[in-house]
Amino acid sequence: MPQRRIHLVRTLSYQVEILEDRCKGCQLCIKVCPRHLLKLSQHANEKGYLVVEWQYSKTLGCIGCGLCYQICPEQAIRIYAEVER
Ligand code: SF4
Ligand code: SF4
């Protein structure tokens, strides 16, 4: 009789942090996000720019593609990968 094997798979989820003091509200990151997880907030930083905010979505979550990170001219975006248990 063949042996049955169980494969345990851990998936990654991603968290995005916006460094508000660096953001200039150019919205480039909003345009490139394939999941539409970034939007302009009504909150201004100390320089007077409306800053971007990232929205967590369990159903249509961040895929960690890094497009927002790459296009940001101010290095205002950080992406963290987390292992789901
Ligand atoms: S890493 Fe990709 S999916 Fe996640 S917020 Fe940035 S652009 Fe959107
Ligand atoms: S690309 Fe960078 S500077 Fe421009 S809105 Fe997004 S986080 Fe802010």
Write a structural description.
The protein has 85 residues and is mainly β. The protein has a single domain, classed as Alpha-Beta Plaits, CATH 3.30.70. The chain has 2 helices and 4 strands. A two-stranded antiparallel ribbon has the order 1-4. Strands 2-3 form a two-stranded antiparallel sheet. 16% of the residues are buried. The model has no long low-confidence stretch (mean pLDDT 91). It binds iron/sulfur cluster (SF4) (2 copies). The site of one iron/sulfur cluster has 14 residues, from helix 1.
Quick structural summary:
By secondary structure, the chain is mainly beta. The chain is built from two helices and four strands, in the order βαββαβ.
Topology of helices and strands:
Elements: E1 11-18, H1 28-32, E2 38-44, E3 50-54, H2 67-71, E4 77-84
Bound molecules: iron/sulfur cluster (2 copies).
One iron/sulfur cluster binds next to strand 1 and helix 2.
